[in-house]
Design a protein that fits this description.
mainly beta; disordered C terminus; 328 residues; peptidoglycan synthesis; 8-stranded mixed β-sheet; 5 helices; single chain; 13% helix; 9-stranded mixed β-sheet; L,D-transpeptidase catalytic domain-like; 2 domains; disordered N terminus
Length: 328
């Protein structure tokens, strides 16, 4: 079944493999190689290339590689092992729901899952595990132990993880309008204020807000999710409606108050896209005034905007936001 479904808490019944950590994992090697040159169990780590800013993780299932980007710059990459046949790792857009450094499986004989970053409550996660050199898990993304420790140190609950059926190279998109459409310059203060308020709150609260926005070309609608729940919906206009929007993921990385521009890091998560570019797609979307105001006051660096040509409706209420390409 290839219909994409927006929503939360799909009955995937996927959990990490019970295989114990192997010597390959414990002997994982940090190397000075490009991602494309990594051998099984190897990883690289160059945080100095982009010291701060929103992080985006992309898992390439065909390549069995994990890429870590900060502000659109790749700062790390690692080999991995995803789901084996019959237990495929679901592709799509996920939020980190929970972090547990010493997690153990509640399904597979209390098997250790060190440095666990949970992506769904039904069992999909990033964690250290056995890497045989091919897909072998029950749906999770296994990582070399040393890499998983470094990754655990930089991830945050609510950040975005894209699991893709190809390597999706992020690109930078600068949107000349404020938020999905034309605007008066005076309105930019609302966005700038929201971003600054969020940045302040990050240092004063244990529960950061996670915001995701879904734009459906089929429904001509925008849905805003906050901490896993729908907080606003409204109509959008799509220029050239006969052309598909495609599956795109945008992560807000910068707000330029001087120019009144937003900078996004964009990527895809499904089959190779040959339609409009990321920049062309976002410029085709114009939100109605009411929903645009709801979005303005929730803007923050690291928030995610997803476009799709499928319907965006859902009746589920759980808290693992995903954009799925199928059921497994």
């Amino acid at each position: 079944m290839n219909r994409r479904t927006f929503g939360l808490a799909f009955p995937l019944a996927l959990l990490a493999s019970a295989a114990p950590l192997s010597l390959k994992v414990r002997a994982a090697v940090k190397v000075d190689k490009n991602a494309e040159q990594l051998s099984n169990g190897e990883f690289n780590w160059f945080p100095e290339r982009s010291p701060d800013g929103p992080i985006l993780i992309i898992v390439s299932v065909p390549d069995q590689l994990v890429h870590v980007y900060r502000n659109g710059i790749r700062i790390a990459a690692s080999t991995c092992s995803t789901g084996k046949p019959g237990h495929s790792t679901p592709t799509g857009v996920f939020k980190i729901l929970q972090k547990d450094k010493h997690h153990r499986s509640s399904t597979y004989n209390n098997a250790p899952m060190p440095n666990m970053n949970r992506l769904t409550w039904s069992g999909v996660a990033l964690h250290a595990g056995n890497l045989p050199g091919y897909p072998a898990s029950h749906g999770c993304v296994r990582l070399p132990l040393a890499f998983s420790e470094l990754l655990f140190g930089v991830t945050k609950v609510g950040m975005t993880v894209v699991i893709a059926d190809e390597e999706s190279q992020p690109s930078e998109v600068v949107h000349p309008g404020m938020v999905l459409g034309d605007y008066a310059r005076r309105e930019f203060a609302a966005v700038d204020g929201a971003v600054k308020a969020y940045q302040y709150s990050q240092g004063h609260t244990e529960n950061p807000t996670s915001t995701s926005v879904v734009v459906s070309g089929k429904d001509r609608s925008m849905t805003i999710w906050e901490n896993g729940e729908i907080v606003a919906t409204g109509p959008v206009d799509v220029a050239s409606p006969d052309r598909p929007l495609g599956d795109h993921v945008y992560t807000l990385t910068k707000v330029n108050g001087e120019d009144g521009e937003l900078t996004w890091v964009a990527t895809g998560f499904s089959a190779r896209w040959e339609g409009d570019t990321d920049t062309q797609v976002i410029r085709r979307i114009k939100a109605a005034p009411q929903i645009k105001r709801e979005l303005e006051r929730r803007m923050h660096q690291g928030m995610t905007l997803v476009t799709t040509d499928d319907a965006a409706g859902t009746t589920t209420t759980a808290v693992d936001f995903t954009v799925m390409t199928g059921f497994f």
